[in-house]
Write a structure and sequence with these properties.
The complex is a heterodimer of chains A (about 260) and B (about 240). With about 260 residues, chain A is an all-alpha fold. Helices cover about 85% and strands about 0% of the residues of chain A. Chain A has one domain. The two termini of chain A are about 30 Å apart. Chain B is an alpha/beta fold and about 240 residues long. Chain B contains seven helices and ten strands. In chain B, the strands form two sheets. Chain B has a six-stranded mixed sheet with strand order 6-7-8-3-9-10, sandwiched between helices. In chain B, helix 6 packs across helix 7. The interface between A and B is medium-sized, with 27 and 32 residues.
């Protein structure tokens, strides 16, 4: 790890908000596993909490961090350093520390109580969602010069992915239930990384029956292995594409 | 040494720099960039550091175009108007970080580090320092790696009188050592006995670029402040 990434990594790890994030994740995960007798129900509970809180923390914190580091970024850019390299270092530092806080908080109880594919999938999805959220936060911060607007957009994006999207999807399903819209449903599920992550874990838990329509469609269309591969590719695209777009913009941006 | 050609910069509708042409040759100069607020001083400096991309025109420093050559900034030391460092970083770590970022192996110029007594606060976190102390850190950083060109954006704002005096002394010394120094300021009295040339900007244009001596002779005034005031009054009457 290079120096800038290391310093940002440590800076975020030492901040109070990251500590609170870690404590909340750890507390909720341990309590879920201790109180719930059925292991798969406990995993489900932790999954809901993770998929709700991780994108919020990662999106909001990274956005604010970029805005607050504006002067520091300016100073670094006045040194002999390439912009692409600096942006990559910041990404490594921010996402690395948030991933570590997540793994230390939720990861330890998950591994202790659910040492199997489902547990690891849950961890993988948590890390994946963290990386996606940081990518999206970088994209928002680099395109929006106004701090309050940028923070507003990241809150809206979080609301959209975790709550609104499902509501819209359900509405569409009911409205067009008479038509063959399985393909469209699939496509729409792919477009929301949080939904996709949730679906992957639920398919593992053998409670796909609970998923009803979309789960049945999913298994029907791809089978479990293919769906896993495809979802992995889509999640990867969700990390890489927003990051590359933000990088492209940052290379040419005026640092005012 | 520095050639600025046909520089135009526009932020959406705001025309910040209008056809700037300047040429600074030879060292041992301290060029003061002065003018009212929002006249484009900082933007001009940011074009020199490739922080801001102009619509047209180019900045050539030591024969190299700043747009295409990030290595040129190895020769530049920059002190920004407002600095901000990660709060958990200690003072000594900050110096170490910038050194590794620059990949600088040479012996550092720690004169300002010593005279600002940075060693006494070396283990303190940047987040706990006052604004003026952070300014001292960034001033010391600008000189530390012996750059040929030193750019200081409002360096005295926020510094106490003693620190200002130390910094002024250092600027004069480096000027005599053959460095080219750029200072922006809107407090003109700070520049007496310091600046050798004056670039006066107004609304994105260079009003004049003169050696201080010529400026004083032309106006018959004893100090930069009075001379600039006189010129401004004349231009307003015309």
């Amino acid at each position: 790890m290079n120096n800038i990434a290391k310093i940002i990594f440590l800076d975020i790890l030492k901040s109070k908000i990251t500590l609170i994030y870690f404590i909340v994740l750890a507390l909720v995960s341990w309590i879920s596993f201790l109180l719930e007798e059925s292991q798969s129900k406990a995993v489900l509970t932790v999954m809901y909490i993770v998929l709700f809180s991780v994108p919020l923390m990662a999106l909001l914190y990274s956005t604010i961090y970029i805005y607050n580091s504006k002067e520091f970024i300016t100073l670094l850019l006045s040194q002999p350093i390439k912009r692409g390299r600096l942006w990559g270092s910041i990404y490594t530092g921010v996402s690395g520390s948030l991933c570590l806080a997540f793994v230390a908080g939720a990861g330890i109880p998950v591994i202790v109580y659910s040492f199997n594919m489902t547990g690891f999938l849950l961890l993988g999805m948590g890390i994946g969602i963290t990386l996606i959220s940081v990518s999206l936060a970088f994209l928002i911060a680099v395109y929006t010069d106004d701090k309050s607007v940028g923070i507003g957009i990241s809150i809206l994006l979080w609301l959209f992915f975790t709550l609104l999207y499902d509501a819209i999807l359900l509405f569409l399903l009911f409205q067009f239930s008479d038509y063959p819209i399985e393909g469209l449903t699939m496509l729409l599920l792919m477009l929301n990384p949080v939904d996709l992550a949730r679906l992957q874990i639920m398919l593992r838990l053998d409670i796909a029956a609970m998923l009803g329509y979309s789960g049945a469609v999913f298994i029907d269309m791809f089978g479990t292995t293919w769906s896993a591969v495809l979802s992995f590719i889509v999640l990867l695209a969700w990390i890489v594409i927003p990051y590359l777009l933000s990088l492209k913009r940052f290379r040419k941006k005026d640092i005012v | 040494m520095i050639t600025i050609r046909n520089l135009h910069k526009q932020y959406r509708k705001l025309h910040v720099l209008k056809n700037i042409n300047l040429e600074f040759d030879g060292a041992k100069k301290c060029i003061a960039l002065i003018g009212p607020n929002a006249c484009g001083k900082t933007t001009l400096i940011k074009c020199m550091l490739n922080l801001v991309t102009p619509q047209t025109g180019e900045v050539i420093i030591f024969g190299r175009n700043v747009r295409r050559d990030s290595e040129i900034r190895r020769l530049i030391g920059f002190m920004p108007q407002a600095a901000n460092f990660p709060g958990h970083l200690s003072v000594e770590d900050t110096f170490r970080l910038i050194r590794t970022v620059r990949g600088d192996q040479n012996e550092a110029d720690d004169e300002l580090y010593q005279s600002f007594h940075m060693d006494r606060i070396a283990t303190k976190k940047m987040g706990t320092l006052s604004g003026g102390t952070v300014q001292k850190v960034s001033a010391a950083l600008a000189f530390m790696f012996r750059p040929q060109l030193i750019i200081l954006d409002e360096p005295f704002a926020g510094l106490d009188p003693l620190a200002s005096a130390i910094l002024k002394e250092k600027i004069s010394k480096e000027k005599d050592n053959g460095k080219l120094i750029f200072i922006t300021s809107h407090v003109l009295s700070e520049l007496d006995n310091l600046a050798s040339h004056i670039v006066f900007m107004e609304e994105g244009e260079v009003l004049f670029y003169k050696p201080v001596r010529t400026l004083l002779e032309d106006t018959g005034e004893p100090a930069i402040t009075d001379a600039v005031m006189k010129i401004l009054r004349q231009t307003q009457h015309e």
